[in-house]
Design brief:
This protein folds into two domains: about 90 residues, no CATH class; about 40 residues, Wheat Germ Agglutinin (Isolectin 2), domain 1 (2-Layer Sandwich), CATH 3.30.60. Helix content is about 25%, strand content about 25%. It has five helices and nine strands, in the order βββααααββββββα. Strand 8 and strand 9 form a beta hairpin. The two termini are about 15 Å apart.
């Protein structure tokens, strides 16, 4: 995500696209969680407590590790679905580390995220735009 070689679509799925930026013409593979173990996970003490609104930090480690071990102990082919490597055009966004204060609220913002409204440079919330 930070280096642009993992893409998360933001659709709420347990899946990512891994991008090989060194491969000629770009290449990527989609990796997703298979639903085979979801019933075990849903019935775990951890998930039952989360469903009741208990914070993860308030759940005993033993119960948290139960859910980790459901995945850890399962054969890989029962947990992950790994797609074929496909051509994947990607765009280099350049340096995003430059910072500038928002002309409205004054908070520091990565230059790559500033919105230009008239002659003012603003963070997304102050600009009125969604992104």
């Amino acid at each position: 995500m930070g280096k642009g070689n993992i893409e998360k679509a933001g659709w709420g799925k347990l899946a990512i696209t891994l991008i090989d930026k060194k491969r000629e013409k770009g290449g990527a593979v989609r990796v997703s969680y298979k639903p085979g173990r979801h019933k075990q996970i849903a019935e775990s003490a951890f998930m039952k407590k989360r469903g009741m609104g208990v914070s993860p930090t308030e759940i005993p480690d033993k119960e948290a590790w139960e859910i980790v071990n459901i995945i850890w102990d399962a054969p890989e082919d029962e947990v992950l679905s790994i797609g074929e490597v496909k051509q994947y055009p990607w765009e280099e966004y350049g340096e995003i580390m430059g910072l500038r204060p928002c002309d409205d609220c004054g908070e520091m913002v990565s230059v790559a995220y500033l919105q230009v409204v008239g002659d003012r440079h603003m963070c997304i919330p102050c600009s009125g735009y969604d992104e």
